Amino acid sequence: MKVGCIGLGDIAQKAYLPVLGAQPGIELHLQTRTPATLHRVADGLRLPAAQRHTTLDDLLAQDLDAAFVHAPTAVHPEIVTRLLTAGVPTYVDKPLAYELADSARLVTLAEERGVSLAVGFNRRYAPAYAQCAEHPRELIVMQKHRVGLPEEPRAMILDDFIHVVDTLRFLVPGEIEDVTVRARVLDGLLHHVVLQLAGDGFTALGVMNRLSGSTEEILDVSGQDTKRQVLNISDVIDHKGQPTVRRRGDWVPVARQRGIEQVALGFLDAVRAGKTLSARDALATHEMCERVVRAVTERPAAGF
């Protein structure tokens, strides 16, 4: 099975390539426009010269069975269009694109071509989060914070806050009937954003502060007088009278803990089985992110 990896940045090197490079039966082909990075990463994986590529044309000439796209978001539309047009099942690190129109076009193109398109929302597959879907979920609160990183709103929301949006969509137990957004934007930079989703019997809150003083991710799911808390996609604390702590095993790889191994291998399994994957639900997350972007950018510049 020939699998291409386009873009060799941190997420590819730290999360995906260790998983893909360890799979039997995979002939891994790497592509980046930076020769020094290409050869350094390929040397670490002991890949021959024939599996190293500096152009997308050269990579596509290898008759790929599947491809993973980890290039910068700005070039996703161009790269994914080329892959889908060539009939290559494609996995894209979130988001599909910065603009909703581009994301919608890619999803439609995949459907018209009958080619799999998957988006890397790995938290749906992280064991600690996936198990929360079996817990009572009357109130869901997810916080994802950073240190000293206020950013232009669209980039921050589509590159980072999108994980919060998708996780809330994954966990809400019913139809979303109300959407509320609050934010602080100063001098064109988004400092923090709060998203509230509500429906029959549930409320979900997503919070991101880019000036929080701490890099952390906390998920609280509660209902029926019980609460489950997940710290940094790792430690699980169940509250029912007394807290019970369950920590990640010492030998559990980070890629498995964060759901990256599961989502990547699930994509490859679908390709092997001839199953066509749809990104239509992923597009719904992009649509919700667009609502957040518009709410944030349309309010007064120094507003809350």
What does it look like?
- It is a single chain.
- The protein is an alpha/beta fold.
- It folds into two domains: about 1-120 and about 260-275, Rossmann fold; about 125-250 and about 290-300, Dihydrodipicolinate Reductase, domain 2.
- It is about 35% helix and about 25% strand.
- The protein contains ten helices and 14 strands.
- It has helices at about 10-20, 35-45, 55-60, 75-85, 100-115, 125-130, 155-170, 255, 260-270, 280-300; strands at about 1-5, 25-30, 50-55, 65-70, 90, 115-120, 140-145, 180-185, 190-200, 200-210, 215-225, 225-230, 235-240, 240-245.
- An eight-stranded mixed β-sheet has the order 8-9-10-7-11-12-13-14, covered by helices on one side.
- Helix 4 packs parallel to helix 5 (about 100-115) and helix 7 crosses helix 10.
- The radius of gyration is 20 Å and the shape is globular.
